[in-house]
Amino acid sequence: MAEPLVVVEDVQKHYGDFHALKDINLTVNRGEVVVVIGPSGSGKSTLCRTINRLETITSGSISIDGKKLPEEGKGLANLRADVGMVFQSFNLFSHLTILENITLGPIKVRGLKKAQAESEAHVLLDRVGVDKQANKLPAQLSGGQQQRVAIARALAMRPKVMLFDEPTSALDPEMINEVLDVMVGLAKEGMTMVVVTHEMGFARKAADRVVFMSEGEIVEEATPDQFFTNPQSSRAKDFLSKLITH
Ligand SMILES: Nc1ncnc2c1ncn2[C@@H]1O[C@H](COP(=O)(O)OP(=O)(O)O)[C@@H](O)[C@H]1O
Ligand SMILES: [Mg+2]
Predict the structure, then answer these.
(1) In terms of CB atoms within 10 Å, which of 46, 50, 98, 238 comes out highest?
(2) 228 C-alpha to center of ligand 1: Å?
(3) What is the pLDDT of residues 4-28, one digit of tens each?
(4) In Å, how far are 54, 123, 156 from 106, measured between CA atoms?
């Protein structure tokens, strides 16, 4: 049975006069992997940022695991802990070691003791293949390693859903796969994921569903196979033809 985990209903988002999200309806079920693709400026990041309430919405509603997104306060902090986010830029604290970057949230927000937080952190760092780097500073790691640390940091909060916003776009090509491999592993383990990416190989391998956005709207939703072999809208066809020629 499909269990809705993220439910976005009739969401409108304006930045001043600009209509950035137009009547978005999207349900992500528990354990589902949804890949969001679309041209630059189509609203993909805005959608991610509204789901974890980094951005307010103009109207509509968003709920996570049956709970409506609160406006602010402790409810919001709890909700943020339910939603892990990984951005294009890794946003690690540069003055903290890798281990400290991971344990900070669990100690402050989950209330773990330092020893417990560190032991959980080592398990996560091992899982993403960077436990040997635990005592280094972020600048001493490659971009691919830093992004894997960012994934571990998000997982350390025990999120119910993970949002990835173009997690490999800032990486050198040879580091893309090491990050995608971690994400494929997470998907296989049943993590609920919303992934904005242009990596079609990842979409084909890991996505249950592809959502195609253009100009603030969801234009198509389909299985990866349907979407890549037989896109329905002219906007999707146009987008895919441009991807393939590069
Ligand atoms: N804080 C903001 N203020 C005004 N306009 C914004 C803001 N953030 C994004 N936009 C606009 O909203 C549109 C969608 O942006 P974004 O969600 O970043 O698109 P994508 O991630 O698909 O490239 C763009 O036209 C962008 O210029
Ligand atoms: Mg974006």
Answers:
(1) 98
(2) 25
(3) 999 999 999 999 999 999 999 999 9
(4) 20, 14, 6
